[in-house]
Write a structure and sequence with these properties.
Elements: E1 2-5, H1 20-32, E2 37-41, H2 54-71, E3 76-80, H3 84-93, E4 97-100, H4 109-116, E5 119-123, H5 141-158, E6 166-169, H6 178-186, H7 188-192, E7 198-200, H8 206-212, H9 220-225, H10 228-231, E8 236-238, H11 243-257
Parallel strand pairs: 1-2, 2-3, 3-4, 4-5, 5-6, 7-8
Helix pairs in contact: 1-2, 2-3, 3-4, 6-8
This protein binds 6-hydroxymethylpterin-diphosphate.
């Protein structure tokens, strides 16, 4: 899953793709480099980010989604939004997946995804982006995140979304400290045991800087290393900025494991 942020303030690529033509070109480049899914977002979720209204968010993403769906029919276009109103417009424009960092926090979201025959990513986050890094202490971060995701997955299936179209994401960096993020990555096999495909978004995130001291632009090696646990799972999606190096990294791991 290649990341396409059409925002002025995303933590690593903010402002680069505000021009729709530049956004579409980058999406097509990622698809050509091997991304199966293009995740288009119009609101930053970095810690402290200011919220964006549904109208402005939809305005940023809808035309780009329509163009990507037309130009890259081989890729699934995903909309990274927690708002059902934005998801409605994005699905009408050709998106086939909703990446919801609030895991169905908008009461209309799960029914909408079910009704449109789309897929959904349900992610764990503590609180909201503005405040999520204020309290990163958990009695047991893995148990708490997995219990939350199990409950949200059951709600999605109850809403009528087929099980294989409900993907679960531990929310790396969303209200967790570096130790919590590492514990969640180590525990991915337990999350996968819930029986859903797993999504991991570790690309360039601050825990990589906490471990290595690398600045945000220099975190590709750490971003790849953070994907090793996901690569061993039966069904996983990795959400990344650097598609071509990630594809090469995963191809080599698969070759070493003897997989097709
Ligand atoms: N991380 C970000 C945004 N959306 N969605 C899922 N499912 N999982 C993630 O880990 C995830 C996500 C944050 O990264 P990015 O999009 O690069 O930055 P920003 O939120 O500042 O736009």
């Amino acid at each position: 899953m290649g990341i396409l942020n059409i925002t002025p303030d995303s933590f690593s690529d903010g402002g680069r793709f505000l021009d729709p033509a530049a956004a579409v070109a980058h999406g097509c480049e990622m698809a050509a480099a091997g991304a199966d899914i293009l995740d288009v977002g119009g609101e930053s979720t970095r810690p402290g980010a200011a919220p964006v209204g549904a109208g402005a968010e939809a305005e940023r993403v809808v035309a780009v989604i329509a163009e990507l769906a037309r130009r890259c029919p081989g890729a699934i276009v995903s909309v990274d939004t927690a708002k059902a109103a934005v998801a409605t417009a994005a699905l009408a424009a050709g998106a086939r997946m909703v990446n919801d960092v609030s895991a169905g926090g908008d009461a209309a979201m799960l029914a909408l995804v079910a009704e449109r025959g789309a897929a959904v990513v349900l992610m764990h986050m503590r609180g909201e982006p503005r405040t999520m890094q204020r309290d990163t202490a958990y009695a047991d971060v893995v148990a708490e995140v997995h219990a939350f995701l199990a409950e949200r997955a059951a709600a999605a299936v109850r809403a009528g979304i087929p099980r294989e179209r409900v993907l679960l994401d531990p929310g790396i960096g969303f209200g967790k400290d570096a130790a919590g993020n590492l514990a969640l990555l180590r525990a991915l096999p337990d999350l996968a045991a819930l029986g859903h495909p797993v999504v991991v978004g570790a690309s360039r995130k601050s825990f990589i800087g906490a471990v290595s001291g690398a600045a945000v632009g220099d975190r590709l090696p750490g971003s790849l290393a953070a994907l090793a646990p996901a690569s061993a799972l039966p069904a996983a999606v990795v959400r990344v900025h650097d598609v071509a190096p990630t594809v090469q990294y995963l191809e080599l791991l698969a070759a070493l494991a003897g997989a097709a």
